[in-house]
């Protein structure tokens, strides 16, 4: 087009149209401005103020319609070029276009055809490049597209080919990336892990979870380590994540981190929270050896013994973590077992008179004590066995006997 003003105005109207576009409105727009015209303008008229952003937004809305999505297979060369564009906005559009293509596959024939297109036009490696080298928005939409691809068996074959070691091998890519690139690759691993149990099994069998463990062992960069801990926290929240994480050395790593006095407090706190989340699930005890669980509890116990009065935040986190563990019957049993049970920290903090500055610590302890006592457990798991029940009662009475403001009976009543 010699004059882009008409296209710019029409595209702007299309973008700002309230509500979703119908196929009819999309068809009317394309009758006036066919896709080759729009793509050509996007590639050749970047000097027109506002044109790129408007056309990118226009094409994004267009490809989100059923009609627009049906046209994407004909314009895969545009998608291929767009994924390699200098413009981050165009790269973002190309990633979203791949997602739109994959969201509109309603039969096996379309899935197979789209998988062929993605392989023929080298789309997956280009998405990986967008993930690693794009800006934050491009990395996010590239991840979304890859995750959507993983939702199909044909897509999993593209992401995890049988010939391990090619240029899309995530382990190799992570080893060659900057720290930011590595975190993005690890975040992709977690996203793919969440797709299905089958995907999680593939990731585990390829030892990709070990990439996260390796980053925690290195712990050279606090920001990177914290980011990886956040990813492990996300894994712990995935339904099938508990089973696979329990097969790794994650508990040993978390215990070591919590016990490490020279470790940054924020890293120790996050390690405690992850431990609490994992051990709050009854199913974890079916996959994890008891010594591993005891080691985690012991590390938190030791940390609480060594904390100074000024370490209030870390102390509250430790108490909260014990409370999460105590919400499962097995966790509560372990917290109340032994000659010096870890639950004593919770009870001491719950009934200790600490003044205004200790309110957060006491509140965290009271919530934790409620969990250990069975407040949040299901009806079948509320009651502790006789030994743990007696240990709980003894700890509360011993704590109350040291207080001038509480009688044992009142203390025990307040714990439930």
From TrEMBL:
It holds the Pfam family Proteasom_PSMB. InterPro entries: ARM-like, ARM-type_fold, PSMD5. One of its GO terms (biological process) is proteasome assembly. This is 26S proteasome non-ATPase regulatory subunit 5.
């Amino acid at each position: 087009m010699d004059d882009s003003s008409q296209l710019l105005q029409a595209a702007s109207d299309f973008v700002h149209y309230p509500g979703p576009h119908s196929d009819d409105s999309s068809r009317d727009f394309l009758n006036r401005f066919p896709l080759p015209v729009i793509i050509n303008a996007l590639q050749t008229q970047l000097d027109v103020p506002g044109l790129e952003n408007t056309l990118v937004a226009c094409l994004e809305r267009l490809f989100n319609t059923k009609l627009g999505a049906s046209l994407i297979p004909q314009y895969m060369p545009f998608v291929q070029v767009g994924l390699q564009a200098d413009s981050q906005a165009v790269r973002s559009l190309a990633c979203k276009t791949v997602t739109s293509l994959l969201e509109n596959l309603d039969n096996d024939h379309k899935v197979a055809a789209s998988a062929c297109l993605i392989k023929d036009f080298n789309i997956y490696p280009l998405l990986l490049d967008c993930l690693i080298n794009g800006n934050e928005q491009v990395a996010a939409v590239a991840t979304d597209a890859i995750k959507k691809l993983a939702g199909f068996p044909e897509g999993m074959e593209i992401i995890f080919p049988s010939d391990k070691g090619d240029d899309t091998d995530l382990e190799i890519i992570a080893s060659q990336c900057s720290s930011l690139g590595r975190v993005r690759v690890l975040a992709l691993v977690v996203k793919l892990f969440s797709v299905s149990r089958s995907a999680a099994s593939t990731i585990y069998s390829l030892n990709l979870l070990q990439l996260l463990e390796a980053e925690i062992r290195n712990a050279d960069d606090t920001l990177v380590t914290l980011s990886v801990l956040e990813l492990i926290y996300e894994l712990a929240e995935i339904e099938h994540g508990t089973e696979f994480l329990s097969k790794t050395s994650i508990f040993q790593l978390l215990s070591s981190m919590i016990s490490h006095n020279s470790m940054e407090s924020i890293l120790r706190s996050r390690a405690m929270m992850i431990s609490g989340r994992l051990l709050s699930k009854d199913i974890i005890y079916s996959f994890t050896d008891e010594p591993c669980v005891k080691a985690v509890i012991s590390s938190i116990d030791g940390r609480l013994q060594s904390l100074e009065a000024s370490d209030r935040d870390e102390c509250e986190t430790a108490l909260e973590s014990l409370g999460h563990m105590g919400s499962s019957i097995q966790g509560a049993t372990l917290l109340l077992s032994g000659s010096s049970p870890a639950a004593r920290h919770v009870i001491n903090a719950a009934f200790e008179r600490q003044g205004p500055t200790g309110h957060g610590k006491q509140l965290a302890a009271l919530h934790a004590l409620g969990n250990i006592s069975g407040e949040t457990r299901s009806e079948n798991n509320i009651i502790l066995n006789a030994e743990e029940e007696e240990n709980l009662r003894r700890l509360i009475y011993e704590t109350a006997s040291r207080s001038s403001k509480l009688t044992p009976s009142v203390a025990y009543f307040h714990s439930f």
